[in-house]
Amino acid sequence: MANSSIINVLKKVPALTKKISGKPLETASKVVGAGVIVSSIYDAHVNGAERADIFDSINTANKMHNDYKQYISLDKESATLAKLKRYWYDIKQNTIDFHFMNKTRGYLGSFSSTILSNTLNILLAVAAIKMKKAGKIAGTILTLHAAKTVLFDVLELGRKKEKL
User: Fold this and answer.
1) Nearest-angstrom CA–CA distance, 144 and 152
2) What is the pTM of this model?
């Protein structure tokens, strides 16, 4: 039974390739467009996650410094006041909401700035996926841009080598 279903799928492959081969540039444009959208969202997510941790670390350090300065400065010498200040300091340092809000702000800020910096690529990718004639042009532009990025940024061709 399993062999017959595999055979049926294999019989349908030539029909699928005929459908695809009739529009190879259009299909390639859609694939390139989808790849650009996925890579842009992935880059934005990774940048957002990294920035969230950095943003949280910086703000936590600043907050701890300010809270500690307030904690150690007593206007009056009072054991009760010192204990209350210590209790309040401990509560402020152990709040989960503070870290959550810092990480959220850092993530959203970096995610949105990365998406905005990739706006042109994303618009070209949407055009490559949704439009027929303009999609072919957009897919070609994206492919050329990707080739330029690989050649110049990854392989570092055309750059002057720095002398040590």
Assistant:
1) 12
2) 0.63
